[in-house]
Specification:
The protein contains 4 helices and no strands. The chain is about 75% helix and about 0% strand. It is rod-shaped, with a radius of gyration of 34 Å. By secondary structure, it is mainly alpha-helical. About 5% of the residues are buried.
Length: about 150
């Protein structure tokens, strides 16, 4: 990505140089047109000079467009990498918490759930609770005695 970034920066700089040079050549064509306005033998010179400057400027514009596309692609790639890093960090935090669990069966279920989440295989919260906490005590209904 660093190499692509450097390439995009230099392509942009090159495009600015080309567009500036093209503008200078166009201005030179305008000056030539003014200087040789009365000379029919050199009437083509300002036109050729101006067209050459326009061609150079268009080339600079094409380089600028290429640089802009490259920067957009780099931005998207950087956002994708940042997202992957965040997901990896969350998985690492989850497995660290899972390692603190003392019961081997519960630890295995939690690690399985973290792996499923990392792979994008998500279940509904109710299903996850039933799978992760199968031995959960029954809730006390109104009117039941606690004993």
């Amino acid at each position: 990505m660093n190499h692509s970034l450097k390439q995009a920066e230099w392509t942009f700089r090159l495009s600015v140089w080309f567009m500036t040079g093209g503008a200078v050549v166009i201005l030179a064509g305008a000056v030539l047109a003014l200087v040789h306005a009365g000379n029919p033998d050199l009437s083509y010179l300002p036109l050729v000079t101006s067209l050459t400057g326009a061609l150079i400027t268009v080339g600079g514009g094409a380089l600028a467009l290429h640089s802009k596309r490259t920067m957009a692609n780099l931005t998207k790639a950087a956002e994708d990498n940042e997202s992957k890093i965040d997901i990896d960090h969350k998985l690492e935090v989850a497995t660290t918490f899972n390692d603190r669990v003392g019961e081997p069966g519960a630890k295995d279920r939690l690690n399985s759930a973290a792996a499923m989440k990392a792979l994008g295989m998500e279940a509904t919260p109710e299903t996850m609770v039933k799978r992760l906490l199968p031995e959960q005590a029954k809730e006390i209904e109104p009117g039941d005695s606690p004993c």
